[in-house]
Design brief:
The chain is mostly helical and 269 residues long. It contains twelve helices and no strands.
Length: 269
Amino acid sequence: MKQLKLPAIYVALTAGSGILLGTEVLVPLALGFSIFIPALCYVVAREYGIAAAAILSIAALGVAVPVSGWKVCFDLSSFPLIGILARFLKGKLSLENFLLILGALLFSVTLLEEQILGLPEEVRQLAGFMNLRWGIYFFSSFILAAISTGVISLLSREDFGFKRLKFGFWVVPIFLVSGFLAVLDLFPEVKQPAANVLIATFSIFTVQGFAVLSSFVERLSLLSKVLLLAAIFLFPIGALIVAMLAGIFDFWFDFRKLKGGERDGGNSH
C-alpha cells in the first residue's frame, strides 16, 4: 500500500485540479494546486517510470473530463507534460535549452487550444490583446516553464542549476532589434510581429532575473526572506519588473560572477 501512496496522491491532485476548474469561482484554487502537478509527475516518473507517469496522467484527466468538459485536457495537460519532459531530458540538455524547448511546447499547446476552442467574444473585442496575444502566450508559457521547473527542483530535491542559469548573448540583439521595430514607424508592417517578439524576449530576461535574485536572496536572514516573499505577493507586477531589469543588466554586469561563459557573454555548459 505504501508503494501506491505517491501515485494515488498524484492522481488525486491532478483529477481534483481538473474538477475544480469546472467551477468558475474555484479556478484560482485549481491553478494554485496545478503548479504542484509537474513536480509530483516528475517524482512519479523517477520512481515508477515515464510510462507509468503518462498512464496515470491520462487516467487523472479522464476522471476530470466528465465534470469539467474536454477543455480541461488543454488546461491541465501541459502540467504533467512538464514533469514527464523534465524527467526525460534531465541531464541531456542545459537548463537554458530545456526551458526554451519547454516554453515553445507550452506555447504551441496554447495556440492549439485557441485554434480548436477559439477565444471568447469579449476577448476578441480587445484589440490590444489580440494584436499582442502571441507574445503574451509565449511570455506566460516561458514563465510557467521556469516556475514549474523550480518547484520540481524543490520537491524532488534535485539541483537543476537554476541559480547558475544564464542565456546566451543572442537574446540581446533580438531584444534591441524587435524593440526598435516595435517603437519606430520605419516599417509599419512589422510593428505588430516585432512587438510580439519583444514581449517574448521579456520573458527570457525575467526568468534570468529570477535566477539572479534567487542567488542574492539565499544570503538574506529568515525575516528578510519572509518580508520579501510578502512583498512579492502584494506587488507581483513590481516583482516581475525588478526581475526583468535584473535579467537585462546581468548580461553586462554579470551580477553572479559566473565563470566559463562564452565570449559573447553567454554561459557555456
